Amino acid sequence: MGKAKAKAKQVKGKLKESAGSATGDKKMEAEGRAEKLSGKVQESAEKTKKSMRGR
């Protein structure tokens, strides 16, 4: 997965988290947090991969 897709996943997660918070849907809010975190982890992995290729 590329860095752009990971960033998109973070944005989607943030939107889902906000929607869940606004509607009082704790499950959706938690899913959004998890998706946002997953995107951050994937973005970090991409950065690490890129820095390792430069060596």
Structural commentary:
This protein has 55 residues and is an all-alpha fold. Helices cover 89% and strands 0% of the residues. It is built from 2 helices and no strands. α1 runs antiparallel to α2.
Secondary-structure class: mainly alpha
What's the count of strands?
0
Radius of gyration (CA) equals: 14 Å
Please, how many helices?
Answer: 2
Ends apart, CA distance between termini: 21 Å
Largest sheet: none
- Mean pLDDT figure: 93
Gross geometry: rod-shaped
Beta-strand residue percentage: under 5%
In short:
By secondary structure, the chain is mainly α. Helices cover 89% and strands 0% of the residues.
Features:
55 residues, mainly alpha, rod-shaped
Walk me through the topology.
Blueprint: H1 3-23, H2 26-53
Helix pairs in contact: 1-2
